[in-house]
Amino acid sequence: MNAPMNPLDAHKATMNEVLSRQKAAHLRDGPPSVEKRVDWLNRSIDLLIGHQAEIAKAVNADFGSRSPEATALTDVAGSIGPLKFARENVAKWMRPQKRRTTPAILGLFGAKAAVQYQPKGVVGVISPWNFPVNLTFAPLAGIFAAGNRAMIKPSEYTPATSELLKAMFAEAFDEEEVAVFVGGPEVGQAFSGLAFDHLVFTGATSVARHVMRAAAENLVPVTLELGGKSPVILSRGADLATAAARIMNGKTLNAGQICLAPDYVLAPQEDVETFVAEAKAAVGRYFPTLKDNPDYTALVAQRHYDRVKGYVDDAKAKGARVVEINPGGEDLSQQEHRKIAPTLIIDPTDDMKVMQEEIFGPVLPVKSYRTIDEAVDYVNAHDRPLALYWFGTDEAEKDRVLARTTSGGVTVNDVIFHVAQEELPFGGVGPAGMGAYHGHDGFLEFSHRKAVFQQLKKDIAPMLGLRPPYGEAIRKYLAGQIKR
Ligand code: NAD
Asked: Which atom of ligand 1 is closest in space to residue 157's alpha carbon?
């Protein structure tokens, strides 16, 4: 008698079976028409509209506290936007792109060169907990526009939302089109070992190493959307009130649990105190209270609460000045949820954990600099970040900072917002990730760019003497080529 399969092997077998069926369906049906792709995009949009209330409820249950407006903004509207953008543009994106022939004269005689955009087939999507709906649906905009099917592994940290996603997709899609598998790291591990035609992973850099290693077994190409410590550089002369209002809005959105959250600030030393005062004022306007205020999001799990609290305690123990912004003066030590007040850490040192790890919480170190080159050198002495933010009016300095630093993307005079630009690629660099998606770049990322060259009807190579037996004609031709 065969021993019963352990649950993980059983899970793996099911995922493999679905992958085989999706691949077979892709071969059976051929590349989907534009109408089919628009239908997939529309079904996704309808799911989001139809389930918006349940989504808000599930996310709130998973986080302990997250306002329905925040979820509607980032996860519902924030997913519908990219899907609609893809729907509007997919027909244009799908068109083969003509290229010039080399040498150009071939084209004159009727040879053709073109790039055809072919669906890759089946794309795997591993999504994180911080925007559990957005980071599942936004990749689908490009995946569907490019004519692919999808298998999705959402996060175990948001179990209610992950179950809801599974039920939603099952309602509107056949498993041959979209299938969702819930589970933790073991399921993620098995999932990332599947022979997809492409795999998108959004999550932590440390986990991405495992994902890429697993994908390498099958040479599956990966898009890695990771995180890191995204700096904000305040230039001398920046409008500090506006900068602080925008930075603190970005830092408190989802309680800082955003891959693109401004991680730390580099400020001219004479501006630090003004920045601190303006940051306090901004937080006071947004959140008169924190504890039971649904607009202020909780940390997703005890592990993350302890981690972020640990950064503050460690910085305090190592001598940093800590400014807790608690506008209502509430006692946050006893609370139903896991809320941490927005906290500034003034002039941290590099031996503090808060300057070593991605914070992913509402804590903002403010480090002073004397010269802008000092700030640039600090950024360059650390891992390349997912984003860099620069606030100021000195255009020459802006150009210099942007040219001398490498980050996935940049927003000037605000934070995070480059992610909302559908015409811009979104992605990391170095430890912040590889590959990019959104808009047309998403379509390209999930398409195979097939090179197609169509030769002349007439076989002219023998006339030109380019075939053996070689003689004077080819030697003359080569002499013309092998020179500067
Ligand atoms: P995580 O890496 O812990 O988890 C992400 C997903 O990977 C989950 O679905 C998880 O189950 C799965 N997973 C865990 N271990 C795995 C393994 N060994 N093999 C395969 N899959 C595995 O990340 P998280 O805590 O959910 O999210 C926070 C991180 O994500 C932060 O670092 C943040 O910066 C990053 N992030 C990046 C972006 C982006 O677009 N660049 C967006 C959001 C979050």
From this structure: 26
